[in-house]
Amino acid sequence: MRPTSPSIAAKFRDAAFLLPLSGLFLLMPPLIDLFTGSEKLFGIPLIVAFIFGLWTALILIAFWFSHRLSDPEHHAPPPPDSVSPGR
């Protein structure tokens, strides 16, 4: 017998839990050291562009998750009708 799959809201809750952890991982020194060179992006040091770009992306993703989690029934498909149509 197949186990039932978790609901869409549960999947979004799990993803929302992992979002700050992934942000923390992306800001750890081994990864952020890749952007410490003297290169510039439109006159902005690459490390500054990376940090603020990552920060903006995390905020936008968290905003999207909050809207999806605030009303999961609104975004979920309607449940099948339990009453048979022949009655």
Strand and helix layout:
Layout: H1 8-26, H2 29-32, E1 40-41, E2 44-45, H3 46-70, H4 72-75
Antiparallel strand pairs: 1-2
Structure description:
- With 87 residues, this protein is mainly alpha-helical.
- The chain has one domain.
- A hairpin with a 2-residue loop joins strand 1 (40-41) and strand 2 (44-45).
- A two-stranded antiparallel sheet has the order 1-2.
- Helix 1 packs antiparallel against helix 3 (46-70).
- It is elongated.
- The chain has helices at 8-26, 29-32, 46-70, 72-75, and strands at 40-41, 44-45.
- The protein has 4 helices and 2 strands.
- The model has no long low-confidence stretch (mean pLDDT 79).
- Keywords: Membrane, Transmembrane, Transmembrane helix.
- This is DUF3311 domain-containing protein.
- The chain crosses the membrane at residues 12-32, 44-65.
List the keywords.
two-stranded antiparallel sheet; 2 strands; transmembrane helix; mainly alpha; transmembrane
Classification by helices and strands: mainly alpha
What is the domain tally? 1
Strand sequence of the main sheet, in spatial order? 1-2
Shape: elongated
Query: What about the largest sheet?
Result: 2 strands, antiparallel
The total count of helices amounts to: 4
Which range does the strand content fall in? under 5%
Protein name: DUF3311 domain-containing protein
Keywords: Membrane, Transmembrane, Transmembrane helix
Transmembrane segments: 12-32, 44-65
Organism: Nisaea acidiphila
